[in-house]
Amino acid sequence: MQTAMNADARSPMLRRKTRPAAAFAALAQASLARIDACLDPLQRRDDPEDLHQLRIALRQARAVVWAMGPALPRQERDRWKRDLRMLARATSEVRDWDVFLAETIGPARELEPHDPILAAIADTAGQRRDAAREAMLAALATYRDWPLPALHRDLAHLAHLAARARNDGPRLAPFSRQRVRRGRKQLRALAKRARGGDADAMHAQRIAGKRLRYVIEALAPVLPARYTRRLHRKLVKRQASLGQRVDGIVARRLMAECLDLQAMPDDVPPPLPGAS
């Protein structure tokens, strides 16, 4: 299943009888390694794909924390949630501008390469994206000094606790199935809220869907096929459709910023001056 879902080759091998705390220590260690590997190229060069890969690594790590949360001490769980959320937020604005420039402004300029208004919008968007990137790099520069040491210390502590409680508590397989069911229940509730087209509700649904997808990928070795195949395929398909809608909402907001306008309605496509 992992191959079909493009799982990272460095992901730890999980067993059905593994304790959840021990599984978290292994999965979280792999997640920190992925995050660390993404940070080096991000500091050396300005390639939107580097940032995209970092955001994927952060989402994977946050999904693991959510999945294993009930098996973790509250202090460690809350620290991981807070610190990973902080890192994700530091990258979000740059990613929004990258997607806007690549998927909205880029195609429009291909249609109207000499349009001065489009050129001005692209210039404004590029400047704001560069400013956001500088702020992001400043925030990420401190990551290896803090909170990374605290997160590694947590892993050592959790691995020690897991070794001491090797024969206590639930097994990973039933625990994982329970967490997937919990994630599906939450996703259904959010999807119901999003049916009216509310932007915040759709965004929450998209986040929950991505989280459940990454939970399934992380725990694939101990999950049944109805999750790793059928449910995973549904999540990927729905995320593609929902992602287009959410990206459109973000594009309207960024276009309004570039044009110094009030927010645009969410039910119309963003205007592209000069594009026919």
Automatic annotation (TrEMBL):
PROSITE patterns: CHAD. It comes from the Bacteria. Residues 17-276 form the CHAD domain. InterPro entries: CHAD_dom, CHAD_dom_sf. SMART domains: CHAD. This is CHAD domain-containing protein. It comes from Cupriavidus taiwanensis. The lineage of its organism: Bacteria, Pseudomonadati, Pseudomonadota, Betaproteobacteria, Burkholderiales.
